[in-house]
Amino acid sequence: MDAMAWTHEQVKRLTGDVPRAPGVYLMRDAAGKVVYIGKAVDLQARVSQYFHKAGDPRPFVALLSGILERIDTVVTTTEKEALILENELIKRHRPPFNVLLKDDKTYLYLRIDPSEDFPRLELVRRRRADGAHYFGPYASASSVRGTHALVNRHFGLRTCSDSQFRVRTRPCLECQMQRCLGPCVGRVPAEEYGRRVDAVVLFLRGRFEEVRRRLADRMAEAAEAENFEEAARLRDQVRAIETALTRQAVVLPSVRDTDVVGVARSGESVAFAILRFEGGVLTERVPVILDGVVAPLEEIADSVLLQYYGRAPVPEAVMVPAEGFEGLAALAEVLATRSGHPVKVKTAVKGPTGDAVRMASRNAEQLLVEHLAKSEVRDRAAGRLAELLRMERPPRRIEGFDLSTFQAGEPVGSMVVFVDGRAEKRAWRTFAVRLEEGPGDVGFLREVLKRRFTRALDEGQELPDLVMLDGGEAQLRAAMDVLAGLGVEVPLVGLAKSRVVGKGHGPATHSPERLYVPTRTGGAPGRIYGGAGGGIDPPADGVREPAGGEARQVGVAGDVELIVPQQNDPGLHLLMRVRDEAHRFAVTFHRKRRGLKERGSVLDDIPGLGKTRRTALLRHFGSVAALRAADLPTLKAVQGLPGPVAEKVFAKIHG
Predict the structure, then answer these.
(1) What CATH code is carried by the domain that includes residue 479?
(2) Can you name the residues that pair with 400 across neighbouring β-strands?
(3) CA nearest 264: which of 104, 137, 378, 372?
(4) Is residue 223 part of a domain?
(5) Closest CA to 16 of 66, 71, 53
(6) What is the pLDDT of residues 582-633, one digit of tens each?
(7) Which of 238, 377, 471, 629 is the most buried (most CB within 10 A)?
(8) Which residue in 506, 504, 500, 503 sits closest to 536, CA to CA?
């Protein structure tokens, strides 16, 4: 529905009370849920754009007439306050149409605290306000670990933990290999160790030339004093510095710390490449990839940077492209307030800084190309799956179900969700089977499916585009029966595992992975070779091997059809990923429940004996041993414990 669907009364109701002032607006649906949060210098002008035909190019604007119920506003004094408030409200409400960066715990920092007597260089995951020097964040774990190893190898700082350092009385292996100066056993004066620490800090800040010059002077002094062992160690350090200097080809004329931002966009995917320059020297490229972005770049760019610098160190300057960024003055004020030092946020077109911005943009474009390539792989798998199952369109949301039990004890079920080929773990669910639909895998599956889709219908939850079952014909028929009873029309597929069907000489022979689907053709019923869920070895007559990406239809039996696709088919591999995750998730949940049961009390699972009565019973007798020694009349005499429950407790305790 386009913007012209709005009536004059609707527009007046939604925008009539919006003030002409800076602030934040919150769009809510009929249930009161916030679906989008934005900021504006003039709230009235910005909000009114949503209701003009050419006022806003974003795709989700066309859907507002179907979901938008009211618009709330919060007036602020300045654009800076609006930016801060918008960021806080986005984190609080997590609207579906806003960009929200995840807290990526893969980033690493290098930390060194010069205030310690003999500090060491550490790899840490979090930056804290403890007075130490932090270098990072580093997006490439291998790169930062390589730098960490290089420093430890050539600068001689200790690598042992503080607890080991305090109690050590003999030189460690690192010291004997001359890779540590041995401060734990007094082999190096504190002054000399401090000079090494200063050199490490300069090195990590990118001031390679200064470090190299200092080390070269000290190497010459050691050689003149005929301290050739020390001169050799200094020579190795100089060579390491020169190697790092050779790799470093990008240098800004300014010595202040600067981040240079590049951005690239394709559809709803946006890539930011943040090049970190410390002391004018490029030290790291930090990638930020966003999917599902519907807002224009001008409205999300400052929000993305504000969220990023909520977890990363704020430099003295941030350089951005000339196009796609606005509200830079407000962003600079917020970052300066957070960091406690002045911050410049500017665009750059000319000179070395402009060259760095263009390089950052090229990096962003490369990141986006790599990301889209991965998305295309997922899209191709979903497209091929749609062809295999003869679906009208590729399935976007796939739900996979599996069961886990051990000797029919503690049966559980699992549901995993994949959206656009990626695991959506926040939507995963587990089910403790209550035996409402009878015993056996089919009964367990019927219960799990009935509970999942009954709740989905009651709460208006999103239904999947495809349901995958770990099993064959029996499981598929059970699912067909459950969904038909609930009036739910969702495509189904059962995926039967490959298994060993022959063990002769050489490698074992395996049956192929098979797909069971409801019959959609009017052909005559055929025969399903090998039965439901079993291994199949179709006869050669009348059956041809599939070629290329073609699937092989083995047979049709009533309302169930068996299809054997090429085993390297990307659509099949997508289903196998869903199946494997569902199996792993179910097994993990089952082991957890079994572990809890094995650690349980003898008083567990006694009908009528809840937590309150169990606590009162143990308080009365003092221990389980005293409870075991009590006879039945003594148990019945316990206050608050009914006679029938006391009999059940006595029977449970005494077998």
Answers:
(1) 3.30.420.340
(2) 416, 468
(3) 372
(4) yes
(5) 71
(6) 999 998 888 887 666 555 566 766 788 887 887 888 788 877 778 888 888 8
(7) 471
(8) 500
> What is the C-alpha to C-alpha distance for residues 554 and 534, in angstroms, rounded to an integer?
14
Of 217, 247, 277, the one marking the end of a domain is 247
The rounded radius of gyration (Å) of the Cα atoms in the chain is 33
Residue 265 structure tokens: 């966009």
Q: Is 260 helix (H, G, I), strand (E, B) or coil?
A: strand
Write down the residue that tokens 């083995």 correspond to.
554
| Largest pairwise CA distance in the chain | 98
In this structure, which amino acid lies at residue 148? H
CA gap 404, 590 in Å, rounded:
6
426, 540: one domain:
yes
**Poorest-confidence range of 28-42, 545-559, 563-577?**
545-559
Mark which of 324, 356, 371 sits at the end of a domain. 371
Pair 414, 431: CB distance under 8 Å:
yes
Instruction: Clarify whether residues 332 and 231 are in a common domain.
Output: no
Asked if 520 contacts 390 with a C-beta cutoff of 8 angstroms, the reply is: yes
Name the region of 140 (left: φ>0; alpha: ψ -120 to 50; beta: rest): beta
- Structure confidence at residue 415 (pLDDT): 95
Tokens of 117: 């007597």
- C-beta separation of 316 from 306 below 8 A: no
Contact call for residues 512 and 568 (beta carbons, < 8 A): no
Residue 169 pLDDT more than 70? yes
For residue 258, pLDDT beyond 70: yes
Which residues, 6 or more positions from 226, have their beta carbon under 8 angstroms from its beta carbon? none
pTM above the 0.70 mark? no
Contact 219, 231 (CB under 8 A): yes
Is pLDDT of 133 > 80? yes
Establish if 386 belongs to a structural domain: no
Tokens of 376: 């295309």
Question: How does residue 429 score in pLDDT terms, banded at 50, 70 and 90?
Answer: very high
pLDDT tens digits for 517-538? 998 644 333 333 333 333 334 4
What six digits make up the tokens of 157?
A: 């700082």
Residue 197 lies in a domain: yes
Domain that holds residue 471: 397-589
For β-strands 317-320 and 344-347, DSSP reports them as parallel
For residues 470 and 450, give the distance between their C-alpha atoms in angstroms, rounded to a whole number.
16
Identify whether residues 436 and 506 lie together within a single domain.
Answer: yes
Say whether both 615 and 577 belong to one domain.
no
Same-domain check for residues 205 and 293: no
- The answer to whether residues 414 and 407 touch, using CB atoms and an 8 Å cutoff, is no
Q: Are residues 230 and 319 in the same domain?
A: no
Higher pLDDT: 467 or 291? It is 467
Query: Could you write out the DSSP letters of every residue in 108-143?
Result: EEEEE-TTSSS---EEES---SSS-EEEEEES-HHH
How confident is the model over 378-411, as pLDDT tens digits?
Answer: 887 888 899 889 898 999 999 999 998 866 567 8
Report how many domains make up the chain. Answer: 5
